[in-house]
Amino acid sequence: xxxxxVTRCAPSPTGYLHLGHAYAAGIxxxxxxxxxxRFLLRIEDIDLTRCRPEFTDAIFEDLAWLGLTWEQPVRRxxxxxxxxxxxxxxxxERGLLxxxxxxxxxxxxEIAAAGQAPHGFEGVVYPGTCQxxxxxxxxxxxxxxxxxxLRLNMAAACARIPTWPLHWHDETAGRQTVTPDLLLQGFGxxxxxxxxxxASYHLCxxxxxxxQGITLVTRxxxxxxxxxxxxLLQALFGWPVPVYAHHHLLTDDSGERLAKRKNAPSLxxxxxRGLNPSAIWQMAGLDPSRILD
Length: 293
Known about the structure:
- By secondary structure, the protein is of the alpha/beta class.
- It is built from 11 helices and 12 strands.
- The chain folds into 2 domains: 6-80 and 203-290, Rossmann fold; 82-193, Glutamyl-tRNA Synthetase, Domain 3 (Glutamyl-tRNA Synthetase, domain 3, Alpha-Beta Complex), CATH 3.90.800.10.
- Strand 11, helix 9 and strand 12 form a beta-alpha-beta unit.
């Protein structure tokens, strides 16, 4: 028997939801409903400096107003840092993590001095400066209270995978291939935890998708490249690999993607203007009759 379809919507409470969030939530909800599966809501509030409780409350209110329903309880990542710490500890015990004391300014200066700036999927690739520190210096600097991030030693992580290449499937783009060169050049030694964010998005999202039995990940195509890294983490931990469906992002009249930081009109702004849920779904390009009972 095929596995039941389990999808999720996983917003971060760093502001009010806008039309793009509604579209993403609607896609996940519809895919679960069409398959007679399950739709989960997860609150990705690991960024303790930007996430706020009032935005979490607003997420529940806005999605319910739009006519969406989801299973309870809702997983809030800020309540599960122990889980992510255990995952980080497992990587550390395998020699795959190291502390990085470099500030962003120092990284920029080092790359400039080297006369080259290799760019990956998420910007400039870290040059691996702190990977060269010996164990004693690392311990002394950590004990002295110096701020640091935890980076994945990408070369060492790739060496732990017994069979290459890895693969994952996107419903539109088809079968995707992951190789060590792609990961080293596209990501390098990525940060998996910081002082202000005890675990990174990359670690938490793959951990929770596995924990919650997500079989179909629907999300914006801006996250398509990140799936290569997520596939590596799945292989390192032995987590199952869901099917992915990366969709387009909604844009404004100028062609810019809708974003909180660019003050895209929030769903509550639209509601205050007199729009009802049916109108919101139509604006998002989804059929209201398939969502609203």
